Amino acid sequence: MSKPITDLIHHPYTPPSSFEAPQGGVYKASTVFFKDVAAMRARDWKTKAGYTYGLHGTPTTFVLEERLAALEGGSDCLLAPSGLAAISLVSLALLKTGDEVLLPDNVYGPNKALAAGELANYGITHRLYNALDPSDLAAKLSPRTRLVWIEAAGSVTMEFPDVSALASLCRERGVTCALDNTWGAGLAFRPFDLEGEGWGVDVSVHALTKYPSGGGDVLMGSVVTQDPALHLKIKLTHMRLGLGVGVDDVQAVLRSLPSMALRYAAHDQSARDLARWLSQREEIAQVLHPVLPDSPGHENWRALCGATDLAAGLFSVVFDERYGTEQVDAFCDALKLFRLGYSWGGPISLVVPYDIGLMRDASVAAWPYQGTLVRFSVGLEAVEDLRADLLQALDAL
Ligand SMILES: *Cc1c(COP(=O)(O)O)cnc(C)c1O
């Protein structure tokens, strides 16, 4: 069996006859023609057997869906206009009035906002569980729980949960378990084959906006599943919500996918290098990066990703308490190569200061650090230049 990186490059697609080139064509359509009324009446938009309407798929979107399903080890994929749209698609497809969804306490903020907003309006409740404590999830699973979200690692506070333990609990209780796999990107571990046992999460959501796009210029999300019935359930909601993606954006992601594994490894190496260097600095109280032994959940990262030895290019630092918010803001402002901006996975390094007090519900698990947190997304610049940039900004403190 070839590796995902090879499959991303050598993936079957059907070229127009007698034309073969590295990239498949960009096929744009709302309308798709049928050859006769019988074909129109027999149309089937639920499978890839044929084309019916642009919203239900084009040759271009089908290729990306197939590649992403292969990347993550699933069998089906749906595309959504953003990572967040992919998250809301899953929650809206799988939850109804009276149900409960459980979210990790370090969950991607907008996922929690969706639960507190639309889901609450629809009579769907949510509770948070301690991402680092499977027994807390076990205690909170109830007959009303229909969906559990997992995030590995948390994208701001970087705790790495025991994904296998959380997924097993869901499996035992018959609860659908959805992983936000943006950090692992299908490269650091196989979400449908945890522990190499051929089982795993039920749904893997990926913000393609990050590493698959790699350019900081595309918004897109995917929902990969292995169970055809679960795929169909989500696909029906996808259709009813009318979610579509632009094929130029699809082509941009297809063009970036072959280099994703190389980029991911480069982001990872530079991030480790800078995280280790910062952990030696007296201005920093704690570096949060799952490869560091003193980072929360490090042993879970080792268990899940030890075989690939991969981590993303993302880490956070907690400044020593003696630096107030204004000083840390000034540190961020003093950075020149690291730009202030959200998202990650592109070539340009990014920095964001966060107020964890506003983000975390301390009733689930107390946040153990006092100082201000700053999250870095490490780009593809020369790591020496990034270190020099951090150094001059630290000196400005
Ligand atoms: C960025 C991100 C998303 C959302 O992706 P968008 O395309 O920006 O909507 C979801 N989950 C995680 C972990 C992310 O980092």
Account of the protein in words:
With 397 residues, the chain is α/β, with parallel strands linked by helices. It has two domains: 37-258, Aspartate Aminotransferase, domain 2; 259-394, Aspartate Aminotransferase, domain 1 (Alpha-Beta Complex), CATH 3.90.1150.10. The chain is 37% helix and 15% strand. The chain has helices at residues 4-9, 37-41, 59-72, 83-94, 109-121, 134-140, 163-173, 228-241, 247-256, 260-279, 298-305, 325-334, 356-359, 383-396; strands spanning 76-80, 100-104, 125-129, 145-151, 176-180, 203-207, 221-225, 284-288, 314-319, 339-340, 350-354, 373-377. The strands form two sheets. Strands 1-7-6-5-4-2-3 form a seven-stranded mixed sheet, sandwiched between helices. A five-stranded mixed sheet has the order 8-9-12-11-10, covered by helices on one side. Strand 4, helix 7 and strand 5 (176-180) form a beta-alpha-beta unit. Helix 3 crosses helix 9, helix 4 (83-94) packs parallel to helix 5 and helix 4 crosses helix 8 (228-241). The longest helix is centred in the C-terminal third of the chain and has 20 residues, at 260-279. The mean pLDDT is 95. The site of pyridoxal-5'-phosphate (PLP) has 13 residues, from helix 4.
